[in-house]
Amino acid sequence: MAYQAGGQRSQPRPVPESLEAQAYLQDYAALLEALPFPSVVFDHRWDVVLSNPAFETLFRGVGPHPTAMPGDNFLRFVLFHPDAGMILGDHESSWCLPMLAHFAASLERHGQDRGLQSIRRDIAQDPIMEAAYRHGLPHWIRAVGADAVEHDGAVRPLVHPDPRWGRTDCRIVGETPNTLQNMGYTRMTLVLREPRKATPAPRRTRVPRHGTAHLRVV
Description:
Largest sheet: 5 strands, antiparallel
Shape: globular
Number of strands: 7
Number of helices: 8
Number of domains: 1
CATH class: Alpha Beta
Helix content: 25-40%
Order of helices and strands: EEHEEHHHHHHEEHE
Distance between the termini: 68 Å
Structural class: alpha+beta
Oligomer: single chain
């Protein structure tokens, strides 16, 4: 059974058979639990292997879904969950298209993987998603450049359920040590930034009733 910071997952996930690897994941779960920012470890299918309490808090308000819960498969959540846009700001351009680009690359490397094939079938069943994948995605990559596809370093908007954060941005940081990478896993952390503050309206200059206002161009 896969491990999850703060407890075990309700659904089984394949983990390495090596006892040493399992012990490493247990210790890594303890590390994630101490982090204040949402952090998640997933495999090449985006099946979640580890997540911390901050990750669970970020998505605690999403409704149930049979296949697209964020704690089960993060790619499916981004693409198929109806509540994803409530948390992931600029949902289509900032989250869906980059994730589709990574999915296309993963499908190219692991074309026979049943989990990836299942996601591809679900994309094909949605006419809008299929059009985005087959036609919109290549055009978008040409328009924004390859750098915009990368997760690591990207700053993307989100809406946190905690009002102390609210509508804000996060920087995605990819931190995958060699041990996790050798297991076929990737770690992604969403470093929350200070909440956006409304820009105050410029103060209006009061003009004396009996006088002339002078503007000086500098």
